[in-house]
Amino acid sequence: MSSNRVTNFLVPVFAVLLGMIAGSIVMLVSGYDPIAGYSALVYGAFGDSYYIGETIRQATPYILAGLAVAFAFRTGLFNIGVEGQLIVGWLAAVWVGVSFDLPKIIHLPLAILAAAAAGALWAFIPGFLKARFKVHEVIITIMMNYIALHVSNAVIRSVLSDKGFKSAKVHASASLQSEFLQSITDYSTLHYGIIVALIGAVVMWFLLEKTTKGYELRAVGFNQHASQYAGMNVPRNIILAMVISGAFAGVAGAMEGLGTFGNISVKAGFTGVGFDGIAVALLGSNNAFGIILSAFLFGALKVGALEMPSSADVPTELVDIVIALIIFFVASSYLIRLLLSRFQKEGK
Amino acid sequence: MGVYEALQIIVPSAIFFAAPLIFTALGGVFSERSGVVNIGLEGLMVIGAFTSVVFNLTFADRFGELTPWLALLVAMVVGAVFSLLHAVASITFRADQVVSGVAINFLAVGLSLFLVKKMYGKGQTDQIQVGFDKIDIPVLSHIPVIGPLFFANGYIPSYIAIALAFVVWYILFKTPFGLRLRAVGEHPMAADTMGINVTKMRYIAVMISGALGGIGGAVYATIISRDFSHATISGHGFMALAAMIFGKWHPLGAMGAALFFGVAQSLSIVGQAIPFLKNVPTVYLLIAPYVLTILALAGFIGRADAPKALGTPYVKGKR
Questions:
Q1: HEC-encoded secondary structure of B244-266
Q2: Where are the transmembrane segments (chain B) (predicted)?
């Protein structure tokens, strides 16, 4: 079995390598210098303490969005609605953050819980429809994304502001922002959310691997009929899996609302974090620890990309191309496994 | 303002907004009827929009009035080629079709914006100068009442879109090719046993969806946005996907749904000019297509069943 485990580890590594190689080919073909491009990328992600702070900050919502997607994957569901659940979570967190005056020890957890609840509620609908009417969750969650976008914009305009484009800043008692973290990273936007995200990863690991409920959720994802035969309540487990996944997504939104931005603005389009979460989860093999690693990789890619236009004249979109190709290669892991097994055979 | 005047604003603009959705949704019908989920319609529209705008800007001087038509053709070809990535990943490499579609969407946006910045040095192209002409359909536009509503002062691609829905219906339900395509999507093993090449049929279907998605994006860019930026195609592919499902994977149903979504879209824009809609907050009109799709899927508006083999790669000899 050990060779299987090695393959599982090698597939994402190969996917990243192939993605980066393809990215450099794109740069070469379009007349850019790939070495200068990637050096700028690495510098922009880790070059000094400011960039490191930004990378960690970007990884924070990625970890949680990745956990949300992965939790659903592990339980046999595809939650493509993380984006929408993240937006309603963001909205709920800011709403609680601006509406109450409470001691920090109550206010901050309350705001995060509100975000989790909002995300969970948004995910409950597709979960319920799947469990009750056998409707595929992918389409419903896509539709829910757009509903979340338009509804939250309407709420921001009419409730959280007076026909304006953004809400007020959340009260200090609900904020994740930290002068200490900002000062040690040369005043980046780093905030305490990373701790929440890491706790989230531990929670997901514990829930799925160490509890009876987690075993049940995975079993239902693996084989509904067998689970039902073994006496598990399949519909309830589907809904629960979706709700927990949505809660992670909601908390990812709270990271943006209480940490990075401190408010919420009207959005013309999606944040993209929820969709990137799909890439994070896939690359992290849907494993809590793998997700932390891949979230940092994608955080570094996204933040480092901002340095590419100024130092190497390469458009930031190159990174989006690389990320898309990484997803392709992970998704087509059949290809990579095939190649790996060829190599192993030749080795013998 | 009477009902007829209100209709005179709503109906033409609904047809105007629906045309790109119809093309793309018809593409979706092909792909999904053959058993391949195509979440990548959004990305295919992005590629089509990008290609048509770039072609139009580059060759408008040389081809004059013909430019938008040629741009449509080029967008169709590029869309079909681009969809090959989805076909290779999801048919040959047995990738999860939804994941591969997501990757298509990422790649389309990344690649097209990368190229826009490379070619124009900024994140947005200039406005195109040569578009489609508005026409009155001869004879039909002279019918009293409905003539001016439906057949006057419209863009030719809109009429082509509606006609195409009937063509697709004929192809899918009245020709051997259509029968094979549907068989591959319902029961690939049975189809294979009968000597139909499942892989080939699915490749063809996905490429047709790419071609139509490319046209859809090109029509949107040429008629509605007239330039290309990151926000040109924002959710129209997904709305086309919704139209296809709302239309129960049937070409005419998809066209009807797309027209209906066109009404919703046009109401959210022209609604302010219409008295009895002025007080409806736009958010309801904006979310209407999505809410209706959810209701349709949940079975509140008739049952919608997907092709049986949708989303499952076909592995020969596997039961």
A1: HHHCCCCHHHHHHHHHHHHHHHH
A2: 6-29, 36-57, 69-91, 98-116, 154-173, 203-222, 283-301
Nearest CA in chain A to B285: A150
Contact A321 B299 (CB under 8 A): no
- Rounded to a whole number of angstroms, the distance from the CA of B304 to the nearest CA of chain A is 9
Residue B238 in contact with partner chain A when CB distance is under 8 A: yes
Class of domain B3-131+140-297: mainly alpha
Q: Which segments of chain A does DSSP mark as H helices, in order?
A: 2-29, 34-46, 49-74, 82-99, 104-133, 137-155, 179-184, 193-210, 212-222, 224-229, 234-254, 273-283, 288-305, 308-312, 317-331, 333-347
- Rounded Cα distance, A83 and A87, in Å: 6
What ranges make up the beta strands (E) of B118-207? 134-135, 154-155
pLDDT in tens, B149-191: 777 777 889 989 999 999 999 999 999 999 999 999 999 999 9
Query: Between helices B251-270 and B3-33, what is the axis angle to 10°?
Result: 140
pLDDT at residue B301 in the model: 57
User: What are the tens digits of pLDDT across the range A175-194?
Assistant: 998 888 888 888 888 999 99
pLDDT < 50 regions, chain B: none
Chain A: closest CA distance from residue B159 (Å): 28
How far, in Å, CA of B72 to CA of B84, rounded?
A: 19
A198 has pLDDT over 90: yes
- Are A153 and B283 in contact (CB < 8 Å)? yes
DSSP-assigned states of every residue in A276-296 = HHHHHHHHTTT-HHHHHHHHH
- CA nearest to B116 within chain A: A315
Q: Residue B252 burial (CB < 10 Å; 0-12/13-18/19+)?
A: middle
Q: Looking at this predicted complex, what is its ipTM?
A: 0.86
Structure tokens at B240: 């086309």
Q: Distance (Å, rounded) from C-alpha B201 to C-alpha B318?
A: 19
Give me the phi and psi of B37, to 5 degrees please. Answer: -65, 135
- For residue B72, the distance in angstroms to the closest alpha carbon of chain A comes to 25
Domain locations along chain A: 58-293
Q: Where are the domains of chain B?
A: 3-131+140-297
Per-chain mean pLDDT for chain B: 88
pLDDT bin (cut points 50, 70, 90) of residue A156 is: very high
Residues A155-182 have a mean pLDDT of 89
Tell me how far apart the alpha carbons of residues A271 and A140 are, in angstroms, rounded to a whole number. 19
> Looking at residue B310, what is its pLDDT?
85
pLDDT, position A335: 75
Q: Which residues of B touch A317 (CB under 8 A)?
A: 109-111, 113-114, 117
**Residue B249 contacts residue B307 (beta carbons within 8 Å):** yes
